[in-house]
Structure formats: C-alpha cells, structure tokens
Amino acid sequence: MSSLAAAVKARWALQRKDTLTGTPARRDENYEEIIMTRRDSSFAENNNSHNTAQQQRQRNDGASSYTTNNTGSSSILRQSTDSRNINNPSSKTKATSGVKLRRIYGAARRVFVNLPLPKYELDKNDNPKRQFVTNKVRTSKYTLWSFLPKNLFEQFRRAANMYFLGMAILQLIPYFGVDSPVLTVLPICAVVAITAIKDGFEDYQRHKVDARYNGSISHTLIGYQNPNYPLHVPLSFWQRLRRGKKQVIPVTSSPSQQQQQQQSSSTSLPSSQQPPLPISSTPGISIPDDKRGVFGRLLSMDVRVGDFILLRNGESCPADAVLLSSSDASGVCFVETKDLDGETNLKPRQGIPDLHHIQSGAECLDNVHFYIEAGSPTPDLYTFEGTLVLLDKDSNGDGSWLERKKVPIGIDNLVLRGHVVRNTHWAIAIVLYTGTESKIIQNSSETPSKRSRIEKQMNEEVIIAFVVLFILCLVCAILAGFMKAEDDKDAGTSLYSRETNSPAFWGFTNFWSSMITFQNIIPISLYVSIEFVKTFQAYFIWSDLDMYDEASDTACVPKSWNLSDDLGQVEYLFSDKTGTLTRNIMEFRECTIGGKRYGNNGFSPESEGARGARIRKERNEPTATVEEDQHIGLLTASTHDNIATVEKESMDVTAEAAATGAAADEEAFKQRRAAIFDDYKRALYSLFTPRYSSLDSDRLPFGDPRIFWDLQPKASPTQNSTASEMTAAAPTTQQDQIHDFLMLLSLCHTVVVDKIDKEGKVIMENENEEDEEDIDQPLVTEENNPLYPSLNSSKRKGGFRKKLKKNLRRNKKDKLLRRKSSTRGEEFESIINVERPDIVDTSVETQLVYKAESPDEAALVSAARDLGFSFLSRQGKRLTVDLLGTEYEFQLLNTLDFNSTRKRMSVIVQRPHPWNDIVLYCKGADNVILERLDESQSKDNTFLQQTQNDIDSFSNDGLRTLMLAWKTLTVEEYEQWNKEYEIASTAVENRAEKIDALQEKIEQNLLLLGATGIEDKLQEGVPQCIEDLRRAGVKVWVLTGDKLETAINIGYASNLLDSNMNLWTLRGNENVEKDMEAIMTQISGGLSKGDTTENALIIEGGALTCLFETDDLKNRLLELSLLCKSVLCCRVSPLQKALVVEMVKEGEGAVTLAVGDGANDVSMIQAANIGVGIAGQEGVQASMASDYAIAQFRFLHKLLLVQGHWNYHRISEMILNFFYKNVLWVFPSLWYQIYSRFSGNIFYDYSFLQLYNVIFTVAPVVILGCTDETITAPYLRKYPQVYEVGTDHRLYTRLRYWLYFGDAVWQSLVLFYAYYFAYDGVDPNPDGRPNSMLQFSSAVALTAVVVANLMPGFNTYYWTWFQFFFVIAELLIAFLWVLIYGLFKDVNIYGMGHMLYGGWSFWLILLLSTIVSFLPRYVVVFVKQWWYADVMHTVRHVEKFDKQQRKKNKKNNSISKNEHSTSSKNSIKKWFQTFR
Q1: Which among 13, 27, 51 is positioned nearest to 994, based on CA atoms?
Q2: Is 72 left (phi over 0), alpha (psi -120 to 50) or beta?
Q3: Cα separations (Å) of 857 from 588, 923, 1260, 1455?
Q4: How far apart are the C-alpha atoms of 1283 and 897, rounded to whole Å?
Q5: Which residues, at least 6 apart from 454, have a Cβ–Cβ distance to it below 8 Å?
Q6: pTM across the whole model
Q7: Which whole-number Å values give the CA distances from 999 to 908, 965, 1003, in the listed order?
Q8: Per-residue pLDDT tens over the stretch 133-157
Q9: How far is residue 691's CA from residue 704's CA, in Å, rounded to a whole number?
C-alpha cells in the first residue's frame, strides 16, 4: 500500500507544470534539443487506437525521456533522421548539426558517460544544472542537534503531555502558593526524560544501521572524470571556517595525463566542452599512470550517478546500476535478491551485448562513449524501461559525435542496490540511481501505523477522566463562589479574612486550584508505563523457546510492540495456503504423458490432499445438492442422533486396535515401497548408467519403473524419436512422448546449477584456469580512490568521519582483513562455499543442486535429472543436458518469462544433431495451455480428455498442476518472428504491449505432451493448530490462488473443514447473486429450526469480483460469511485478499489477523489489525511488512492462545488498576473540600501529590502488566476455550471501568472517614502535641499508598518474586520518605514520621481501614470465581485440583515407599532370626 502511495505521489510530482515547457529548443556545438509534440511525425506510426492516451501520459511524465528512432526514437543522428540515411553520404549536407536529444521532463534523467554535457545544461560556471541525490541513506529521525527540539515537539503533540505541562506551569504561578518548583516539574520531566531516552536509543540503533550501509566498501574507477558532476565545488561551511576562506580545489593529473588531455582536446572537443573533472576538496591530488584505469576503494555513500563500479563475487551493489559486462563471456551476472524481495534463489542479469568486450577499467576510460535515458525513479522492483545510446566520433575530424546504436534496457539489465553478486567473478556497471532514488529505499516505507483495540478504548476512558475532573473542579468552583458570597454578607468576615475579591473571581481561581488538587485523576505515567510493559511483553515473546525454529534459527520477532494485547482478541484469522499452511518445498509426485498416468503406483506415501479427500469420502451421510445450474453444493453433516455412545473400556480397545492396525499398515507400505524401488532400479540400469540420478529411496519422491520400461528403445535411443521429432506432427509413440516431455522439463527453465562434493561444498569449475582468468579481470587496488576523500579524511585527528569509520569497521574488521589477504578464488570460497552435509546424496556419482526462481521449477528439473534427463550447465545461450548418458548442447534462442498475467513460460531452443531443428517448449496453467493447443489436437478428445481427467485427479489429491506442450518452428518462421520481436524490444512507446502481442503470436498451435503433479506438504502441526484455534472461537479463513478442488482437500487435511460441516460452494458465474441468496435462505432456515451444524463457505475469485462491485452485494456476502464457521476463498488475487480482510474488519468491527509468507500477501498483512509474516521459501518480504514474524504456522498456537491471552489480561488489569489508584488518591481531596468550605486548598502535602504516581505506586502495577499469568501455558494450550474471554472482549469493558471507579470511591470514603472520626476531637499523639491537618492528610496518604499497592497484588493471579519485592519496596519507600523527608525543618511535614509512627492509633486504623476497604471486592470476587465461574476460572479450578492431586499422589507414593522399605526390613530381620 505504501509503495503504491509513493508511486502515485511521484506521478503527481512529475505531472506538475515544468519550468521548461515554454522554453524554445536549444543547441550547442554537439547537441540539438528537440521538443516532441503529439503531432510530431516520429510518433505517427504509434498513434493507434489503443495507445494514444498512454503515449500522451508518458510524454507528460518521465517516460518522455526515452529515445526513439523512426518508430519512436528521440535520439536522432546528426546526419540523418531515419535508418536509411545512415548509408547515404549525400544526406550529410542536408542534415542539421548536433546529436538531437529529446527534452527531459520531471524527474527523468539522461546520464552521460565519457561525453560532454550539452552546453545548455551547464550554468554560468560550467557546472551541470541537474543535481542528483547522494548515495547516503538516512533512516534515522534525529541528529545530534535536532534531537532535543524535535523530540520535545513530538512528545508535546500528545494531549496528555500538554495537559501536565500546563498543570506544571499553573502550579509555578505564585498566586496558587506552591512552594517547591522542583517537585512541580519533576513528574512531567521524568516522563519526558524516560520517553526521550527510549526514543534516543531507538534512533541510535537506526544510526548504526545507516553507518553500516553508508560505510560499506565499494570500488569505483580511478581516473574517470564523471561529466554529470561539477569540477569546482565550494567547500562546506565547516571546511571554509577551518581554512578561513572560500576556496575550491581541482584535481591535478600526472604529467603524462595532462599531455594526453591536451592532445585529445585539440582533436576532439572544443575547450568549452571538455568533460569536467571529478569532485575533490583535497589539494594536490595526483593520479599516477599506473593507477589510472584501476578500481579503487571508497565508501558506498560516495558513489555517484554515472560512476563505473566494479562488483566482485559476494559483494552487494551500492546503488541501482546498469550492467555493462561481466566475467562471463555472454555478459551474464547472477545476483541474490533476498534483501529486496526476500527470495534466496539466484536471478540472472544481462549485460549490454555491445559492451561485453569491456574487461578492464582502461577500456571503460578509452573505448566507451554513451548516454542513458531513463524515466523517473519508481518503487517497482519488477519493471524498468530505458535506452542506452552508443556514440562514436565522426571520422571527418571535426570532433562531432555520431550515434552508433541504441540498445533497449530493462529490469534484466539492472543490478539494484542490495543485490549480491553470486556465481560471477566480477561485473562492471554504471550507476543510474543513488540514495533515496534507488528502488530498495523507495520500498522501505514503514508499515502502516496500527493501534490496538484497548489503546483506542483507553483514550475514551482518559476523556471520561477529563470530564470527571472538569465536573469536580466546576462543582468546587461554584460552591466556593456561593460560600464566598455568604461570607461577604456577614460584616465580621473582614475581621478574619483578607480576601476582598468578588465571589465570581474567587470561584474562577478556585477552579484552577481544584485543577491542581485533582490533577492526579489523569495518570501521568500511564502512557510511559504501557510502553514499558509492552516492551517487556515483546521481549518475552521473542525469547519464547516454544516459538523458536531450530532448523532456520529463527525466533518470533515482534515488530509492532503496541499490538501485543490484540493478540488475545483475534476473532478472524486470514491465512494464505502455499508456504503458510504448506511448506512450499515441492516434490514431484505424479505426471501424465500421452494420456498415461505415472506415479500412482503406491511408491509415495499418501499426500495431504489425498488424505483430505479420503476424509471427505468417509462422511456418513450422502451429499445433498441444489440445482446443478446454480453451482451450489451442500454436503450435509451427520446428525447428532446417529452418533453412538461408546463406553470407556471399548474406546481403549478401539484405540489400541487402531494403533496396531496403523503399525501394520506402515510396515506393509515399507515392504511395498522397497519392492517397487528394486523394480525401479532394474528398469533404470537397463536403460542407462546413472551418474547424476539419485538412487536414495528416502530422497526420491517419484519412483515409477513403468516410465523407464516405456522409454526402452526398439532400435537406438535416438533413432526412433528423431524421425518424429523432425516433423511438425506430434510424436507417434509413447517413447517419443516421454522423451519430449522430459526434455521439456530439462530445458524450459531459468535455473542455475551447482555441483557439490561429498561435504556439501560447491565445486568450482575451471579451477585450473582461474589464474588465467585473473589476468583478464579488471585491476583492483586496496588503496582508496584519491578522487573521493571520504576515506582519507577519516584519518584526520578528531574528525567525525574518523569516529564514524571506527564504529563502522568494528564489526567488519576481520572480514575486511580476510578479503585483503585472500585471492579471488579464496574469497569466493569463503563467501559461498560452506559445508552443507544435509543436502549430500551419497548415492550419486556427481551431485547437481539446482537454484531456481521458484520451488516448482527446481522440483521439475530435479525430477527430469533423476529420470535421466540432467541439466548440466548454462553458459550464456548454451545449455548442456545429459540425455540418458549422452551429453548434448542446445542453443537457447529466446526465453519468454513467466509472470502472473501470462501464467506460462516458454523457451525457444535450437536442437543439435540428430534433431537439427528449432522447437518451442511451453509449460503453464492448464486453462492457459488448453486455449493455445492446435485445432487438430483439440479434436483428439481421447488424449485430451484423459489428460484433463488426470489433472482433475491430481487436484483432488492436493497436487499443484502444470500442463506441458511444444511445437516445432521452421527457420523462416522463427527468423521472421524474431525480427519483429527485436523491433518490439527496442520500441520505447508501448514496448511491453508489443512484446506481449508477439509472445502470444508464437505460443499458438501447441501440441500437448502431458501434465505434472507436484505436492506441497502441510507444515508440521498445522491441523492441530487450526483445530485448537477453531475451538478457541477464532474463525479461520484461507485465501489462496489454488483450484477449488485442491483448496477443499487441503482444507480437510488441515482441519479447516471437517466431516460434520455443511459445505457450501459459491462459484463465479452470471447467477452468483441468486446462488448467494439461495445459500442464505437455506442456512437461515436451518438455524431457525435449531440446527446447530456448523457451516463452511467456499468462494471462488470470480464470485468475489462480481460481489465486490456494489456495497449492497458486499454487505450480503459479509452477512453470509458471518454465518459460517470457516471460509475458504480460492483463485483469488493479492488485491482480493486485502479486500476480503477490509470487508470483515470494517463491516464487523472485529480484530483480524492475516498471516502469509510471500510478497503477494503483503497487502493482506497490512490491511489486517495484526499482520504475521512467515519467513519461508518465498522470501522475507511478508515478514518485513508484518507486525510479527514467525517461522512456522504452528507457532500461532502459542502466540495467540498463550502469549496473546496473557498480554490481553495483563494490559487490561494494568490500565484498570491505574485508573483505580488515581481515583482512590483524588477523592479524599474532594471529601476534604466539604470541610474546608471548598477553599481549593491542597489536602496532601505537595510532595505526596507529585510523587504518588511517579514513585510511590507505579511498580506493582507495571509488574502486574509484565508478569501476571491467569493460567499456566500447558493448561492454556490444553483448554483453548479460555481464549474466548478475549474474542468476547470480557476483560476490558466500560462496565469493569466503572466498577473499578466505584470501588475506588468506596475505598476513598473508608480511608478518609476512618481517620476523620479517629482524629476528630481526640489527641492521637503520645507526646501531647496537638494534631494537625497535615497529620490527618499524611495518615490518609500513607494508607492510600498501602491500599493502592496491595490492590495490584490482590488482582494478581500468579505471584512472582518480582511482585513480592516491588510491593514491599514501594511500601518501604513511602514510609521512609515520611520519616526521612520529615527530618528537614523547612518542610511542611517536619517531624511527621515521629507523630504518625509513634502511636498505636495510626497502625490500628491503617489495618482496620485496609481490611474494610477490601471487603466488598473480596466478597464479590469470591462469589464470582467459585459460584459463577466463567471458562477462565473453571480452568483455574481444574489446574488447582490437578496440582493438589499431583501433590497427594506424590505424598502417597512416598508413604508407600516408606512402608515397603519398613516391611522389607522387618522381613529381613525375621528371616535372619529364623536362620539363626
């Protein structure tokens, strides 16, 4: 969502009026600017009916910067305007001068490399007008100078902090008689200071992350003069201040370089167009000849747009850059993208074909002249369009430039910031986007701000407290005014009162005095305490070993700490299926080839989907359906009357028999599997000798020997198949079908292959040639690049850069030292060549490991390998495959990539002898392939129908299906299509649409080969977790893109659906509204008749599309969904997932939780109240955007049912206790006002008033919020029904708030009047001193502190030593404060400790008043928990009973052992006496 908002904002910024709109075209000696309009002839060929509007939008935004030729190019040759004039010498005299460039608008850019900038793009000082952002990234909020003002501004934006600041200012006014300024500002200062420390610590962590990224080491070209930046840059303010004057420092070249530059200037460019030199602020920099063309070190923060950068294996790219060349002859560079999209699979990036010859930095300086035109920066990680225009110097010697070629560049040519180079020795790239304009930074927006349900409700309670405060102050002000008016009527008032103000003014001032008196009704430390408590709760969740996944070394990571209480109130859980409920580790289980099914021979165990289908078939009642044309299915459940009751003894016998039967079935399966595997090996060895195929039965998911028997050749391994394959017709024999099927699996992919040894380490190919390769590698020096002084300036004594580098290198010192001392081969070895014994297959002679972009693709290629069709290597466009023991080299001509729109992938390959033809292999979704089959094959209903039946069987077993097809192409047909495809690839306008159209054109008239079935197994503990969540009252919805049948069977296997449910299906068709109403009628009718059978709803994505069109239909769908216990949505898009979550969250007002593992789940995760991401095979993008990150779905059991319940209870009790203790403290002051004629005088000593919330009573409440447990974890997991107190929101309600409020008022009455009647007319002091109001108020204050600290203890269910310690500590602090603070003569409570503690009356009243104040609460709680216990307290009783029983049994066992020991001793003694 945030990325979309950023893109919209960027587009809006680009569409604003450009300042150059009204400027005429400009030119200089080398360039001529042209302004393209809608009527320009260069666009005439592209203005068709469907893209005119899009072209106009592209001209308005950054897309207008792309170059076009006569079909769309804006970069036009000086001599000609179309391709025909290139070879026409006579056209030179008619052409205008200068390379023509289209005007750049908005944030689009043109980056020049070894070329002069147009003169009109330079300012009066010959510096570029265009300024690019630096590569320095800052995610921190504060700096050293801005922290204090900015943090204070942020804090005082809170209404509560502003309130207490206003109260502190009010108390400093002398009129109100507050004597202690220190105590006045202490509470607000303490709160602000604690929050500032927390914010500062968090921001310091961000600064450390920024320093790590900005200070990483990169390599740029020494001697390269970047023309996109000015030569003369003014020094910074601090540099000018240090040096005393403003100055600029140029770079000085070596004498040979200066001579070379003078020679080039006389033969190439005018002096005004000489390329500017790089930036430098270091005097006297001289670049030696031996360093020119060498790549030197610099900090990544100093990388600039237009710089040449060298990327070595294992290094991360510091900015978005266009790949020029690599160590691979074809210019391919493999990158790891997990820092961007979380995927760990390697992805290829293509260099520029015309620049593959670049093998050194010197060639970058001397032989490369081009510019790149690209649009404005966007956050889209998967699309990019631009053009690289190569230029050559004109041979006529006038120094002008000619365009040689334009090359389209896309996302496959872009290495993004955060990409890590893998399996490639080195790569050279040119920087295009830096810093905040790079894609990873634009996608680094924070997760949308979320607030918990209790936090929102608590704000309402704070408002109520404000209202109560206002009423109390207003009542006191009015009554004080009336009292003053009555006093003024008495003439004798002037004898004892000096107050001469009017009653109205007296009431007005009394209002503010009462505000000071009653200020503590608003808990000043509540917000800080909640943040402190939630921090501890987050730590407890993170450190919970039950949610730690040892395999991936991943703990549960809370990212949004303020949502911990919502974990205990989840009503709806929305889950993805693939990778979330399942493991996303694919296994090739079955296939159908030529209408024959393989893999269903019982070798593999029953799949999860098959088990779900079996459970579904075992239902007792027959299926009842409504009209077939309505597409509604109802599976009735067994009635409760047919459920037989079984005695406990017979149940035990049945369970024992079931266990015995299961063991027997398991043993029979193992024997059958072993027999099938023996047959499998015999068939394999009869066909070929395996070198790469696995023969480990535990690792082999597919083991059907029939496929090898059908592959047996009649004549030779290739002759029979070759004859048919060289024709356009389909293969005629089953052997040919299997041969082409497996060949497709081994060729139609983008996987990267690694060979590993017996220790799991990658075997580096061509190790003996590594030294020879090193000679051709670009030269690299470990010295700093002298043109970038950042590293050098860090050596200055006391400099900030020195400190930054010191912190930066602390964690990377050892790694950098190893890199310096190691060779390239050793460095590569240390980065990726780690031991992985878990993947070693000892049954394989040479083990191949495939790294694919998806687990499905790796499973298919691995299956082909195990069946004798092994993909060995990819060297540019050459694919080497071992076919049944013989190696063949195929030429890859084109790859038509898979995407969510195409839902298919194709490759066009040229097959070697004996085929010698061109074929297209295609794999994709069944509905997509079926639409593209040849008409002749579509008429073959037998083959096609059998394949569709097999696919349906795969889906019923829960397998993921792909259909495979192919076709042969003639040379003429391919060359004509490829010519059109290359033209479309170079088009700038509507490039994607043209490419899609040509891909669609070639992928027609396909010949069907068969289909595959791949299993994605359920994760461990998923069925039990879902079952317990449903028992806890959580409604579980699964949102998946799989087929309906697959989703249903997985639903049964995962306990989302059970055999007692009514299953309703809502499909996408024209009658979807009628279908929905019919289902509503039947469900409502059943409920009205008292039918308690649960309902489950299955919805297809097409139905959601229709029902989301209007709000009325959406509301009806919500009503229907709420009647169902489980809902399963299949064939849904990522956007539909988010819309479903929004529908329930906003329509029902419920707490929702969404869990997913892939990038397609991010929108759903961010739409829910709580987003949970699973760091799985699809990457970590979902976990990065989530509020909580876990490794397995089953961890939700502990996260919700245990940690969630605890946190909900803790936060609820803590907030209620906070409000309680403040009301208890304030209301004695109100009772005092009655007897002080509403004078507004402060009842307590001012020290009590300020320290009550901050010191005296804060710890027990916080400990309650951190550590209390209603029920221990084992019983919460055993009885998930306890979670219903959260889904029903029983613990924090408005009723409980008023009950705590009323209880506090009652206790304040008891405390106040207990001492009032004791001290009224009686001298309680043993030394004869008369009592005072301060003695009375201090006694009430101490007793209130005692009661306020005991109340959290009373409400605590699980006492720990923390609670004991802090309750006792708070009481000691309060009592010692009165004693010690009262020793000072200048304080109001001087000697108060001796007066209070010296007599027995204070202690007796303290004890009695405490007991009486707690008595009503004790009675009510006792009656409720024992006589009217809810589910939570019932389980508490069960736990207590079990604990007592365990103690009793332990005691009985101990007694039995003692009796047995005594009996044994007596027997031995008797035997000994008899023996004697």
Answers
A1: 51
A2: left
A3: 10, 10, 57, 66
A4: 48
A5: 565, 566, 1208, 1211, 1212, 1215, 1292
A6: 0.70
A7: 11, 15, 6
A8: 988 888 778 888 888 888 888 777 7
A9: 19
